[in-house]
Protein 1
Amino acid sequence: MATGDRLSDEEIAELKVRLSTLKSEHRDLDEVIARVSEGGNFDQLMMKRLKKRKLMLKDQIAKLESQLLPDIIA
């Protein structure tokens, strides 16, 4: 990070690209999980892994979003 814990414009742009990528992957996983569960006969272990990956993505998204928010309490 830049000095003073402030993000540079370049760092902000990189975080936004990463955030967009993670959100896209999260949406894609959501669609896959929905399609697999509609089939009725699905691998429980695979479903568990998909949901775990989706949760990890959600956590990463939240972390990046918090880094992008300006510090309210300075």
Protein 2
Amino acid sequence: MRLVALFASAAIFAGFAAAQSPVVKPVRGRPLVARMQPMRSGGGGTPTDPSSLIPTGWTCAGNCGTDGLDGVVPLSPIGSSKYEWVSTASGVNGVGILPSGALGSEIDGSTLSTSVFSATAGTSLNFYFNYVTSDGAGYADYAWAELFNSANTPVALLFTARTVAAGSIVPGSGMPAPLATLTPASVPIIGGGPAWGPLGTSTGTCYNAGCGYTGWVNSNYVIPAAGSYYLKVGVVNWLDNEYDSGLALDGVTIGGVPINPTSVPALSTWAVVLLGGALLLLGMMAAMRRTASHKIG
């Protein structure tokens, strides 16, 4: 009888312990893990300093970089040789969540912010984006872009994209409506396991229906009031951190002027510098010849 009572007590205790423990959803073959140390890459998976991969003055939280023609992501319609990107691969816990309203169950991700720029009322903010995801079924990863003022207050949601098994993924299902004009206005996924370097180990993989990419989509927003602003984009894993997603970004302009500050002189400036150097060298050579001629005479 004592042995029976002992087993009964053990069963009751185990049941109580299970009831007090949080229930963790199985994560497609791996336990849910917190990825605290991001690996930033240039699209090929090589760890490096993100400041050397994004425009001067821009800031990254998580995993960001610059890439060129790569897998399913071609160059953007503006014709530049590279574009910026953010990815949930090697993202950071709690980063990439929609600023104007978390949906719940976000895990980890990344954000990329431009430098602060000034705009007058009626100025157009324009850019292109391409959402890429290896996730599908009920694991609805998402990406977004939002305009902030210089006081770090959200001003306008400019686009959303979210994984769905079928139908349009832009704007994002169950997310707030963007205020920008999107072209095209709705976008179904181009299906299949997307091969794209910024997805890290998820490149070329596909978890069920819904994985793929959008192709380049244009976002245009007319800023209603003068002020100082910056653009922030983000991408986040939802429910778990397997099968990563990312966002390509290009052609960010304000009033037609690129938001891409750089310390490298423009070609015309280089031309002036080189011309000045050449004139100085010619002057020095002429002076040396005069000196030599005077000594001989």
Protein 3
Amino acid sequence: MSEQFHLNPVMQAKKISVLAGNLTTDGQITVDQKKGKLVNVLDSLDSEAYYSQFAKLLGNKTQSAVVGSFDEQKRKWSTPYNETGKDNTIKDFSM
């Protein structure tokens, strides 16, 4: 979403590196002017416009990942993974 012009994105090139070798800092990204790799970093954007656009996307009814209810999602999360790719959820058709 940061590519959208109305968000007023400001990109800045910075040299960064990913820390490794210390359990407390592994995976952290830091600015490293000497050894870092040059990447474009999003420095700022219009946060109100961003959240407004994000809210519109969440309300889009044509999303491919729409879930009917929290209970339905909870059932999917608690269903064991089946290696065949089939849904192991027990269907309850008694109404």
Protein 4
Amino acid sequence: MVSASPVSGTHVAPSAARESLRMQPRSRFATWRSSDHVRLVLIWLVLLAVPFAAPNAYVVSLANLALINLILIASLNLLMGFGGQISLGQAGFFGLGAYASGILNVKWGVGAWLGLPAAALIAGAAAFVIGVPTLRLRGHYLSMATLGWNAILVVFFNQFVSLTGGPNGLLGVKPFAFFGIALDTEPRAFPVVWLASLLVMLTILNLLHSRIGRALRAVATNELGADAIGINSFGIKLLCFTLSAAMAGIAGSLYVHVNQYASPDTFGISVSILLIVMVALGGSGTYWGPCLGALIYTAVPQLLLNYEDAELMLFGLGMLVVLIVFPGGLAGVPDALRRRFAPGWSR
């Protein structure tokens, strides 16, 4: 009996596949020295200069928003790009995390630092409940379930006025505080968002380099083949879906405490669809693709403010052109250019 290798696409014996999955990184030091780890640390060290180099607080606010968007898009890329599962409810988990943390703060006086893990737990628990029945099915059932989930949450955010503030939004959310100092400005809040985004990106990178990450890619490539070599496909998919939602909940908590406000319009179905587009545009299934997607998702609407009536059309047209020319996303542009202009070149 043979099975398809998730890496090369060739056929290997199940025993060889099991042995491949048992292979662990040579050492923690070797993992740390990997190019992605080094690049990640260097980029985030450069980002530390943003509050000092930015000309005004507005630019810092865009940097905060970009890093929050990065957490959202990277978490969805983990599920969609590496796990092969499409969720149309990522904005719903984002909103659930925001309202959970915000309501705990406004209604019960729970601090922002406790609200952050609480938001992750609540969003992750909701994903677990949804995933247990739907991930056992094949096809697009997860997409349909998460689409309905997102719609239900938007109605809840709008209609449960006594708890969420309704269409007017949730007001009075307290910012993060550090030793009694309120982080109530964009430059003061930046280190919190910076650290959270770094930890999320580091978690995803380590996960992808782990045995679970290799199993996740195997399930995405060939679920039946993964089952045949002893991988618990359902458990891997459920873990990935839960973790992705928990990360979206972290992004929601950061969003509500940095902006000190939450509105139902921020967490609608259209946002979930745009997040999927950003994953594809940046490069689905690539580690650095979400960084490019987050930059585009944050910057392009600002550049098109003067074209409000045509903003959505221009945004959509630009994304369509990029995806047609570079179907692998922007992260795949260098490889595409090398194949086009230097077909004999190899790494």
